[in-house]
Design a protein that fits this description.
This protein is an alpha/beta fold and about 450 residues long. It folds into 2 domains: about 25-155 and about 380-390, 3-Layer(aba) Sandwich (Rossmann fold), CATH 3.40.50.720; about 155-360 and about 395-430, Dihydrodipicolinate Reductase, domain 2. It contains 13 helices and 15 strands. The protein has helices at about 35-40, 55-60, 70-75, 85-90, 105-115, 130-140, 155-165, 205-210, 235-245, 245-250, 350-355, 370-380, 390-410; strands at about 25-30, 45-50, 80, 95-100, 120, 145-150, 175-180, 260-265, 280-290, 295-300, 325-330, 330-335, 345, 410-415, 420. The strands form 2 sheets. It has a 9-stranded mixed beta sheet. The chain is globular.
Amino acid sequence: MAAGLSAAPAGAQKRRRRAANDRVNVAVIGAGGMGAANMERLTGENIVAMADPDMAHVAKAVADPKRAALKAAYDKAEKYADYRRMFDARKDVDAVLIATPDHHHAVAAKWAMERGLHVYVQKPLTYTVREGRVLADLARRNPKLVTQMGNQGHSGDDGRRAVEIIRGGAIGRVREVQVWTNRPIWPQGIARPEAVATPASLDWNVWRGPAPVEWGYNPIYAHFNWRGWAPFGTGALGDMGAHLVDFPVWALELGLPTRVETRHSPWGTPKSPADGSYPLATVTFFDFGNAKGGPIRMTWYDGGLMPPTPPGMPAGARMDPGGGVLYIGDKGMLMHETYGEKPTLIGDGVAERAQVVPVSLPRIRDGIRGHEMNWIRAIRGEEAISSPFAVAQPLTETMLLGGVALRAGVPIDYDGVAGRVTNVPDANRYLDREYRKGWEL
């Protein structure tokens, strides 16, 4: 860490005992953008602190009168540009919501957990495979910490019903899954631009944080388009896989992939891919040789690419170009939208078989819209947590392996137990990354 910023051992900060309806002291890291969307569901709690390197951006996020309650809460919260200083200064925080760019997720979450704080981390859980395993191990060793990833579809009623139907055998044995999204909806496949003057409100050094690149500021990176740039984001698969891939991994108990191959359009900087923007479109083939019900292939499409329309589509139904999942079984098919919503049954007799599949999964209060409060209620002991790190980490690892195969440029064979690429030893370097001094994991 930087001088004057001290680390703390696991469980170092004493947690207050929580009673039912007791308000939780919450801090937020990355308070604008998605952070504001998450936090406006938590205004019934005590929002005591916030860390963001651009408070002008945060102010814009809460300028809408519809967010008056969030603005009032933010106005009262103590403000920091650097979350490391917030961790050192505030000893009254119970829980931290992290909604930064991807490259900060693991660093911020680990430091919070080491201080005994409950954490909610936006998806993807981490930027690298190793980071995910570090956080999952930390969560296992600190079972009283409540962890949640921001894949809100995991809390939805429709998605949970889709899982029940598939597990109940209504479409038979599944051997193939097709997944697609319209992302990226930000610039990708382009060359890196020249640096320009940094806005006076932005602490660019803090925004870059762990990223070991000496890039100057350009508005094409911050505050939204970072998803398409390799040092900061994880591309379309990292952004939307946590929603879309979640359901097949869950329903079919896939385990980790055993082989991954990614085909793609050109990188933004072909001679040095990791130093530029991701390709505009990719197709990734995931083979799950150890899936519970036998081998399964899942194919991921992004950049607006989609699989063909399946035969027997019900009248009026269509494949949502925004994103969806299609499960192909030997007795029929099931399709749903990005967050598990609107399950559509395809094939003779599927609807009748689905109707008799019993409800077996718990429902989360308020469904998708209750994902953030599910975390709070779990902290208070009122409800089981929806998407803890034990669930989020293997899902995130699966997604990130698509990026590993993308960088490797060839199919990779993966040993999930060892966490190693076995056929291309050099590709193992993509499971980890370097960190800028003062921002080490």
